[in-house]
Amino acid sequence: MTLEHLKAIYHQPFFDLLEQARKVHQTHWKGKPLQLCALLSIKSGGCSEDCAYCAQSSRYSTHVKREGLIPVEQVVSAAVRAKAAGATRLCMGAAWRGIDTDDPRFLSILEMVRRVRETGLEACITLGVLSPSAAQQLQKAGLTVYNHNLDTGEEFFPKIVSTHSFRDRLENIRRIREAGIGLCCGGIIGMGESVDDRLSLLQTLSSMTPPPDSVPINCLIPIPGTPLEKQPPVPSFELIRLIATARIAMPQARVRLAAGRLKLSPEAQALCFYAGANSIFHGEKLLTTNNQAPNQDIKLLQELDLLPEDLLGKAENSLQPSA
Question: What is the pTM of this model?
């Protein structure tokens, strides 16, 4: 889809855009439940990259402390809890530039992937740059999808990251795809980019063959100590427009309402779902920031008739006032 086509979609009257996105969503996703994903930091802080939004960069003074890779059993316990809470995917994140097979920690990561899959959950992981060999071994371990966000459009990207290029990220995506691993790839809005920069990101994603399996759309959470700490919040209607445009541009992708959801009203979240968002991060914490409380998620999804059937009974119990 060309950038001009995406502009025409995005800038049409708001309710016309929502109606178009809803029709696309109903064609491809009607009757399919909203996906709940749990997110777990498996290695925090100390990253050598300079991504301007990131609390985990070693170049900035933030609240995040540098910690080593967590034990495999801690990951398994988190997976079990996530599944009990209704999640179907565990997304694991490690803060570093990348990893290769000669790193002794890589064997632990392979074991994490295998053990998460044994719980019945899909396994997603983000480890930065991968060698072809590392990607192949992750695929053999059962990795469902690899997360490698492009963050923003190619032209704006150098204003956010200088330690690697937009093309570096595309090359890593190529290696992931060649290994036969599914792709989770999206971006962040609210970093000072223009609407055209956001649409440029969607143009790159929608032009992939095939487009990503999952497209997380994050709203910047300004972290004290990072270069973007004073960025203003994104207006809700801009987020909703972008989600609707993403749904139209990538009909078969899961569009994930990701970071920043805590700041959205229930009504704004409902419009995001109506526009085509069909996946969320579910749990009290993202990698380094807070998320909407699980019981609030359950209440909202139940009110919108979006709660998966196997959670309905659990939801009724969890929402009962305690004695």
Answer: 0.90
